[in-house]
Amino acid sequence: MLGCQRNGLYVYSPRKTVSFEKGNIMRKIFRILLIILFTVMTAGFFTIPEADAEEGTCVLKANHDVFVIVWDQDNEGNKGRQIWQGRINQGESVKITAPHAQIRYSYNDQPDEDQPLSGDTDRSCNSDEVILVP
Fold first, then answer.
1. 120, 106 contact by CB (below 8 A)
2. What CATH number belongs to 52-133?
3. pTM above 0.70, yes or no
């Protein structure tokens, strides 16, 4: 607060006080804008790696009865978590959503018999592409 002392009394100058308050408000607005600018500029440094992944969808279609297990595959070709498992009957199809737009699948072409899986085939999975499972 601005003012001066005259005859033992402290006198305030309203004009200077108003001017001081405007300056104070402007400083606060400036500080807030700087904080917002800093936050926006640094937000890019704290992104989650998974946010860069491209999700994709595809359709598995069977030529004959088959048991299939599908895994997610990352951009480096590593087999990830299992995303689907089940039987696909002849002529039927199943829609798959892959977090990295890549899948790896194995199958048993005799689903009524307990046999080891074969294949371990990797494919791209995007744009609802149809993948024929042997």
1. yes
2. 2.60.40.2190
3. no
